[in-house]
Amino acid sequence: MQRQKSILSFLKKPEPSTGAKPAVSDAEITGTDTPPEKVPRRIFPDSRPSLFSTIQHKFAKPHSSTRYWNTGLVRGVKARGLWVQLCDGGENFIIQSLPLGFDASEDSGNGHLVVSKHPSEQHALNSSRTVFPGGDKGSLLLNNLEDDLPGPETPGMRPLVPRVKRVHEDVCDFEAKADFSLQDNRKRMKLEQASGVSKKIHDEDSDTISKFEWLHQSQIKDANGRKPANPLYDKRTLYIPPNALGKMSASQKQYWDVKRQYMDVILFFKVGKFYELYEIDAEIGHKELDWKITQSGVGKCRQVGVSESGIDDAVQKLIARGYKVGRIEQLETSEQAKSRGSTSVIRRKLVHVQTPATTSEGNIGPDAVHLLAIKEGRMLEDGSILFGFAFVDCAALKFWVGSIRDDASYAAVGALLMQVSPKEIIYEGQGLSKDAQRALKKLNLTGSTSFQLNASDACGDAFEVRSIIDANKYFAGSSDSWNQVLDGVVHCDLALCALGGLISHLSRLMLNDVIRNGDIFSYEVYKGFLRMDGQTLVNLEIFNNSADGTLYKYLDNCITSSGKRLLKNWICHPLQDVDKINNRLDVVENMMADSEIVSHIAQLLRKLPDVERLLGRVKSSFQSSYVLSLPLLGSKLLKQRLKAFGSLVRGLRIGMEMLMLLQNNDVMTASLSKVITVPVLSGSGGLDEYLSQFEAAIDSEFPNYQDHNVSDSEAETLTILIELLVEKAARWSQMIHAINCIDVLRSFAISAISSCGAMCRPNVLSHATVTNSLTATNPILHMEGLWHPYALDENGGAPVPNDIILGEDGSSCTPVTLLLTGPNMGGKSTLLRATCLAVVLAQLGCYVPGRTCTLSVVDIIFTRLGATDRIMTGESTFLIECRETASVLQNATKNSLVILDELGRGTSTFDGYAIAYAVFRHLVESVNCRLLFATHYHPLTKEFSAHPRVKLQHMACCFDRTSDTSSEVDQKLIFLYQLASGACPQSYGMQIAAMAGIPNTVVRAASKARQVMKEIVGESFKSSEQRENFSTLHEEWLKSILSISKTKETDFDDDAFDFLFCLWHELKRSFKEN
Known about the structure:
Blueprint: H1 2-8, H2 49-53, E1 66-69, E2 74-77, E3 82-87, E4 92-97, E5 113-115, E6 123-126, H3 163-176, H4 185-207, H5 242-246, H6 250-259, E7 266-271, E8 274-278, H7 279-289, E9 294-296, E10 301-307, H8 311-320, E11 325-330, H9 334-339, E12 348-354, E13 371-379, E14 385-393, E15 398-406, H10 411-420, E16 424-428, H11 434-443, E17 449-453, H12 462-472, H13 482-487, H14 492-508, H15 512-517, E18 519-522, H16 534-539, H17 551-555, H18 561-572, H19 578-593, H20 595-606, H21 611-620, H22 633-663, H23 666-672, H24 687-701, H25 712-727, H26 729-753, E19 759-760, E20 763-765, E21 781-786, E22 802-806, E23 817-821, H27 828-844, E24 848-849, E25 852-856, E26 861-864, H28 877-891, E27 897-901, H29 909-927, E28 930-934, H30 939-943, E29 950-959, E30 973-981, H31 989-995, H32 1000-1018, H33 1022-1025, H34 1032-1046, H35 1054-1073
Parallel strand pairs: 3-5, 7-11, 13-16, 15-18, 16-17, 20-25, 23-28, 23-29, 26-27, 27-28
Antiparallel strand pairs: 1-6, 2-5, 3-4, 7-8, 8-10, 9-10, 11-12, 13-14, 14-15, 19-24, 21-22, 21-25, 29-30
Helix pairs in contact: 1-3, 12-14, 18-26, 19-23, 19-26, 20-22, 21-22, 21-26, 22-24, 22-26, 31-32, 34-35
């Protein structure tokens, strides 16, 4: 009857209370068949209890146990991801979502369920958990099911059944079972599923809690006992209490002895045929690879694992997501361990650690993967700062060292980061100033990850680093002596300190073989090349762009991966040597004229593997027999080593065939010999004969080298072959570099042939020099039919060509400055970029987009383009604009090319105009470099219209005369993208605003306001109107004449004669015009 009453209570109204309170029983009472709500409902407390009373049963969980409670306050009740508060006798409910992961040990102030009821009322709450036996009688824990789980059907959802029959069926079921009745098998299955999920959630909660207190976030410390809040905290180490270590088993100690020194590394622990991750590493494996955490493994702690067959794939996935990964391998088999005693534990050791910047396996792509170490030196008297750096490409087994001198803008550091594009950057935490660290973050446009070196891994002084290199015989396999390389580096001690930090870091990662067998070279960021800082590379969209077009993609027709890497290096270092530029152009021209040989080259290059990295992999395996002694792992590495060696030999043969093909062509041989150096290939002692011996050995000993299990005897043969090949590593590297150069030069030729517009061979002249005579040779930039190489129109055609002519007649008074005006969107920025790109292409040795191109060599390109800010570093748009301009004013020379676009727009009109005027005048009269200055400050055109060194031009536009409207504001503006003489009358901002969708009423109001402002502001610029016939330079000349006339000496210096000559030239021109 009790069961019948509980069911009937949902089908009829409650009877009035008689005042007697029923006894509270501890026996379980079966609840109703109502499901949990799929989406937790939020019901705000108000004075409408009837709204909740109709759905109150929906919040009860279906379970066999129900308890009554009669306390005034129930504490510690929490659902997973849910906070429920009941108050005022159950009439008012608040349901709020909480983050997952809260546990019942927290106090009620952090989200416990609080239920307040009136003493005269009783409530029953179905729970899947029983009351905690030692706590309050009212303490319980709710378990919130997943939202998408189907629940049992409610009474309202059942088919219509007579009431008497339904009650009779329920009574029969109650007598047959101790649990509440289920309507059918389908409902039972759903309930079991819900219970299973509840258990799963409970298990996951227990799995995410570590059994080690010293791993809890609040207790974790580094090896020196410092907590994460300490500025000196070392996140790479872990403090484990001695008593905790003493209680560990032998295998546990093996793992934690390594892990406490490599907390920043995910460590796979080899156990039999599996690799396992524990505790914090297990959480990462669960998060990144979706592996299930279990309580087992070493010491019955949290762990995830993978079999031997899946370890390589798992490691590559974790590295691709930015993690460092190491392997603790077994040094012996279980049988070998048992032979030392029945209780002996298998010896294990950390073999090597892979990081995103040191990986040399898997699909790492064609781009170079670099690890960069940087060391800041002292500040010089002029305020400049010295930096030493060293970086490594572990896949190619190459190291580079160098130094740079930088100013407060850190432009050289930005150039280094753009050129190297490191995956990781390491530096001394106390050895790099705060400004330098901020600059690294700000200028790090390639997404590199920065790491600080600890005191134990600090760079050290130069003497200490030299001692370490000598003691460990590092760089023994380098083709050049490391001492000779460093002696050729400016500030070599600083570069050596950076190299020491890099060596220390690689040693910690167990990569001593890389250091020992690696080649080392010096690296120049600027010296001897066209200088472009990091911001210039960004502004010109050399490597990155929001769209698809970049200079690198335009030139990248390389077939080999090593060719693509060399192409990027060449783009970062355009030449200044005219002879070298012309030598490259000769090869490109010959390739364009001989399509047949270019086709043969392409066919051979397509068969070529990445021989540069293969040579590095083979060299790194030289004299590294320790890893081969490991059980199981050794045979796998031997198989990989044989495959790499065989692929290298086959690849070298293909490359040699290509070089010998070119040597048979006299024309190509003559031009190529000036660009590349090819070792002796044929004849006695040539590489051809040498390579044939390796091919014969592979054919006889390892015919199936790509999938061959190497035996012990074959391993010795392979070791001898590798040793013999590495003996001539320098000559192989020279040959590979020649192959890469041919691939890049062929790419230049293909770019010129496949271009959609006119291309020409540039005529590059040496630097402008001042002669002993009165005449001076000025820089020249003369381009006809110039177009942007990858800013194509909608149909893929070339943009409108234009002519840029600066310094054409060699006179000191010839304009080398272009003051450019024109409407917004008229093509000014495109023209500026196209000019810079043409210079870069010409000094790379490429053909230039245009009909003709003549220029004297440019030493530095400066660009001030676009409007950007860096909010996170507190740098406004105008501040960045001024800093870039300051770099131009401090470093520009007569042979530089300067591009300034809308300087002064980040501040007020008068301040902006004043800055633009002062900067423009300084560059024109003091520096006299090739300058393209785009502006919307039209008074500048009046101020410098008569200046003999300034040329005024604008981007042409016109109005659509077919429109019916007579108002100029409403007429459609047509951009012609054609460079025209003279200044543009206005910037047509109203028309651009209308094109952008600003309402016509607003545009018309702005047009009226513009006219009023023009009349008011125009009074301030009336003096500039007088400059049309008398420029600032004329003032300087007049002052010079007056000063010369007052001197009593008759022996004038050259500067005085130059001024007189310029004045004579101007007077002569004025008379001719009049």
